[in-house]
Write a structure and sequence with these properties.
InterPro entries: Isocitrate_DH_NADP_mono
Protein name: NADP-dependent isocitrate dehydrogenase
Shape: elongated
Distance between the termini: 12 Å
GO molecular function, one term: isocitrate dehydrogenase (NADP+) activity
Order of helices and strands: HHH
Organism: Pseudanabaena cinerea FACHB-1277
Number of helices: 3
Largest sheet: none
Radius of gyration: 15 Å
Helix content: 55-70%
Strand content: under 5%
Structural class: mainly alpha
């Protein structure tokens, strides 16, 4: 169940989340190939590409 604090933060910032996610859609991300030599760099790139909204990330991290 979602806490009231997290729900209020989400509702207050929902427009920011949606805008950032919308802007990120369809943009090319260089992942250095499927099997990159440096997994840590590739994993960081993938994480950044899959979580483009810092504001949403901060809210989601409150659930952990």
């Amino acid at each position: 169940m979602c806490s009231p604090t997290i729900l209020k933060q989400y509702q207050r910032k929902e427009g920011q989340f949606l805008l950032k996610l919308s802007v990120a859609q369809g943009q090319f991300v260089d992942m250095s190939g499927y099997y990159g030599a440096d997994c840590n760099a590739d994993c960081n790139r993938a994480s950044q590409a899959m979580r483009p909204s810092q504001t949403l990330n901060e809210t989601v991290n409150l659930l952990q």
